[in-house]
Amino acid sequence: MKIGVPKERAAHERRVAATPETVKKLKALGVDVLVEAGAGASCDIADQLYVDAGAEIVPDPAAVFAADIVFKVKRPDESEMALLREGQVLVGQLDPYMNKDQVQAYAGRKAVAFALELLPRTTRGQAMDVLSSQANLAGYKSVLDALEHYTRVMPMMMTAAGTVTAAKVFVMGAGVAGLQAIATARRMGAVVTATDVRPAAKEEIASLGAKFVGFIPEGAATAGGYARALTPEEQAKQKEVVADHIKNQDIVITTALIPGRKAPVLVTEAMVASMKPGSVILDLAVETGGNVEGSAVGEVVVKNGVKIVGNPNVASRLAPAASLLYARNLLNFVTLLVDKETKGLVVNREDELIKGTQLTDATGAVVHDAFKSA
Ligand code: NAD
After folding, report:
1. Contact 284 CB / ligand 1 (< 6 Å)
2. Residue 260 pLDDT class (50, 70, 90 cuts)
3. What is the mean pLDDT of the chain?
4. pTM (2 d.p.)
5. Using a 6 Å cutoff on CB, does residue 196 contact ligand 1?
6. Strand order, beta sheet including 69-74
7. Measured distance CA(92)–CA(348) in Å, rounded
8. Could you tell me if the CB of 204 is within 6 A of ligand 1?
9. Distance CA 173, CA 130 (A)
10. 246, 253, 274, 290: least buried by Cβ within 10 Å?
């Protein structure tokens, strides 16, 4: 069995889906690994390091797609889609909700596609949870990125000339990314508040030493542990609480997402207008529609002196660390697909982690319940 690792070609994508460490472990599983030349360059991984770990370097995507299983960071582009073969396994962050036509296209090519974002958030799934590994880094980096645009200081500083007060940081959405942003801002000495709509988040915010601001609507957490979209009345109530708080904040980091839907708008134009010049808002949800009115992908929009930062693909801005964790997630996931005895491919639909992530099968069928009639 062979696993192929192409160089990622999407804009703003610097990560790679295997590292020398995971290549070595894949070889130990009895799997051969083909890595496209230069695939690790943007993570400071030279081809020779992959060779030393036991991989074969191949010159182009066509040679990579000769493998039985292809590891991707992002969904395949058009040229890669043309290389997908019947029965070939594709594993990656395929973003299926936003790319439903592509789910049909995997079926059209009879590829066996797995979207890792759909992995059930169970204890067993934790080691393969790409949303968590990447969101953790994105949450940390969002604080650093906000600071790049903040022209005051984060911690309180007592000097002979007087005291500089600590920055006030407000984190909106306290899932994996938000909690890491809270922890990072706290470590840097900020006074941190945070909001969410799930009851569990309220305790987690407090456990990190931040203060909860907001309100928890009835039944806002779904069975899967995710937030549901709020009703217009609930949204209005949330905005009322937030509007009063946000005008005194120096840095706002928004991370709120609803699986399968556009991100909720949490910061309105009026809220931005109420903030002090020099304040910074970082919209981590900018690529999924944005939590902040007026944010734009890849831009720093300035409104009345308030900077709204919309960096795309924030985890990729820490590509070596993000790849290290992502590659381990993939290694752990692929152990579910390799039969320990025969070393052959096995797709066990009885396994909830397989069932939860598999989009299509080798007969050309869409097998995931959420996309069957897409
Ligand atoms: P996410 O990326 O889907 O959303 C980010 C945060 O935004 C969430 O906390 C969500 O509640 C919040 N949010 C959504 N709408 C909001 C609104 N209108 N206002 C304020 N906040 C809003 O979330 P995530 O980080 O992927 O975490 C989702 C769930 O998965 C959580 O319950 C988390 O604890 C759980 N989880 C479990 C495991 C595990 O291994 N068991 C691992 C990771 C995450």
Report:
1. no
2. confident
3. 96
4. 0.96
5. yes
6. 56-58, 32-36, 2-5, 69-74, 89-93, 112-115
7. 18
8. no
9. 18
10. 274
